[in-house]
Structure formats: structure tokens, C-alpha cells
């Protein structure tokens, strides 16, 4: 009698097939995620060619000692005194504080300087005679009232310049549902300040925009046969086109800054003697400021560092004092061109990219400086980007769900709220700056911008200040 061989039923086969297929699919997914992570970490040749040198320990030591013993004299690089009144909106922030400081340093009368902000500027500025009016730029009447405050008799008849530096910086958000979080201040506040400037007779208004308005959103979810994401490396210059579609910007912050920039530049009018323009700092602003200043290096020092997947990412950074000098240069150019319109090119109603006077650096360069020379512990453990990218979509989904449907749920705050997809669209792009047009002379259509502080020198200067305070 032949043995009976029982064939496995379909119910018996199914678990084995599903398990095999499942393992195969999981392997493919992991391989693809590894591929995406490798693409995000790539350094394109064109970016490396513009930033081939990495900081060394000896170089850092020399720069730190120089910052400690003979820091750069910024004062001699300031444009001359203009004998005007000044309203600095957002004058308590990092850039605004330096504009106020530089105005006083070059000899402007302290009572001719007025700061509009939610918080007062540094105590020493107020002690010198600078006035402060607590102002919410989204409040149209409040802005108008702050501009309407009487000036001291000795300066009341001087012409008026407005520097507009107030902004809300929320780099992590990209969804239109969150747009008003930035737009209320960055656009609505700008309109209120612009209208008040016109109403109260300002003849010059220079605003702080952002180099990020030209960053094109990359797509990290590349095809398996593609090695490098599109737009992974970008060179930003005054010729760079501003994206037209919301989803082409890296995030909502850039969308609103581009809109505000357009409004300000469109208001320039030589005939009515109302001159306007914008400065685009590229990309991260750093420098000595208040303890809570939202600077790249300051946040690292206060937090003791953080995990990082951006060691090899190349960026141009710009010192806040250099940004201030660019604003003052633009003001002088607009005043001079208004006086002699036939002798100087008309650069009113334009935006100028500015950065530090050196090639771009990597985040790894900055990590090395801070970890080796800070008197407080600063560490940057290297981690792959892709787990955090995946987590960012979950966080974004929760933030969107909470905002649109369940406002009673806890709102995300702090570092967790920052970990959304748009953050990677700006931090994981090699962003290099070409500010050659701003460096041209006014006769050539530039600002005569000659920044005195290098990124290494400026970060060492900030580190010296940090170490002294701690």
C-alpha cells in the first residue's frame, strides 16, 4: 500500500508565503531608507568646490586667541553719521540691537533713536538716552501711536529713517493651515509699519528680509537610481528667482518673508522721497546678543549641543554686526541717490543678499569650535537623518490635527515642535551665498558692503563672550 502524501492546504501555505513576502518587503524598505539617508548626506562636487577647506584645531586656537586679545574694530567700518531720527522696529532683537548700537557709535543723537518692540533693548542703550515704546506690530493703532510719540525738540525736525527688523521665525512649518502663525507678524506687521512710516514722514525704510526666500524645496524621496536629491546644493544670489508657488518655498517662514519683501520694495518712490529696500541675510544669523537670542551658536551653547545629522552640510552664516552694517550702508546709498539721482544708479526697491566675507563652512566646523573651546560642555553626537525625517511627518500630522480639529489637545512646543519636515528643507540643503552685488560700490549699483567680521572670527568673538559670562 502506497503511503498517502497529504498536500498542505492553502491555509497552511499562506502564513509561510506572507512571512517571506513580508521579510522581503521590509528589506526593500530598509534599503530604500538607507538610500534616502545617503542622498541627504551627500556633498555635491559643486558645493565642495565653493567650500573646500575645513577648520583645523590650530586654526581655531589662533582665531580664538585673536578674538580674546585683539578683536576686530567694527567701528571704522560704519557709514558716517547721517543726522537723522531713527525708528528701529524690532530693535530689541539680535540685528535690531546692533543697529541701535552702531547708530550711537557713529554719533547719532541718542534721543533721535527710538526702539519699537515687545521687550526693551539692552539696559546700556536706554541709559544713553534711547527711547523705547512697547509695541505689537500686528496692532495697527499701536504702531501708529508709537510713531506719533513726540520727539525731543533738538531732534524733532530731523529727517526720519525706519529700520524694520521685527519678525516671527518658525522654520519648521510648511502647511498652509499654519501660515498665519508667521504671516500675522511678517506680513501684517510689515504693512502696519510701512503705513506708519509713510504717515509720519519717513523718507527711508530698510527692512530685514531673509536669504531663505530663494531656497527651493528639495525632494529627499529620490528614485532608487538617483544618487542626489534635486536642489540639494543651491547658490543664492540677487539673481536667484523667488519661488512662485507656496509648495516651492522651503516653508511658511520663507513664504511670508517673500511677501513682505515684495510689499516693501514696491513702495519705493523716488518722486515722493520715500525710499525703501531689503537686506537678505544668508543663511543663519549669529553673534553676541541677549541670553535668549535665537542665534545658531547661542542656542547650541545654551543647550549644550544636540544630536546632529548635518555635520557635512555646507552653509554660509552671517554675523549680526555685518547685517547691521549692510542696513546702514543701504540707508546711506538711498539717501545719496535721492540727493543726486542723475549721478548714482537707482537701487531703491531692491533686495540685497549679504553674508560673511569668507567661503561657506560646514556645521561640523562649528561643532568642532564649540566643543573644543567652550568652557561649558557642548557635544554633538552624530546620528542618521532618516529616523528623524520619518518622525517629523508624525509630528507634523499631530500638529495639524491638533490645530485644525482638536484644539483641546496639548500643543507641541520646544524642540519637538521644530522637528517637522520643513526643518530638513532648510538645514539639509547646502546653501551657499553670492553677495558680490552688495559688495560693489554705490557707483556700480552696489551697497559698498565690506563686512569686517569673518565667520570664524565672529563665532570666536561670541565664544569669548560666552566663556567670560560663565
UniProtKB/TrEMBL annotation:
<keyword id="KW-0560">Oxidoreductase</keyword>
<feature type="domain" description="3-beta hydroxysteroid dehydrogenase/isomerase">
    <location>
        <begin position="87"/>
        <end position="372"/>
    </location>
</feature>
<dbReference type="GO" id="GO:0016616">
    <property type="term" value="F:oxidoreductase activity, acting on the CH-OH group of donors, NAD or NADP as acceptor"/>
</dbReference>
<dbReference type="InterPro" id="IPR002225">
    <property type="entry name" value="3Beta_OHSteriod_DH/Estase"/>
</dbReference>
<comment type="similarity">
    <text>Belongs to the 3-beta-HSD family.</text>
</comment>
<dbReference type="Pfam" id="PF01073">
    <property type="entry name" value="3Beta_HSD"/>
</dbReference>
<dbReference type="GO" id="GO:0006694">
    <property type="term" value="P:steroid biosynthetic process"/>
</dbReference>
<dbReference type="InterPro" id="IPR036291">
    <property type="entry name" value="NAD(P)-bd_dom_sf"/>
</dbReference>
<protein>
    <recommendedName>
        <fullName>3-beta hydroxysteroid dehydrogenase/isomerase domain-containing protein</fullName>
    </recommendedName>
</protein>
<dbReference type="InterPro" id="IPR050177">
    <property type="entry name" value="Lipid_A_modif_metabolic_enz"/>
</dbReference>
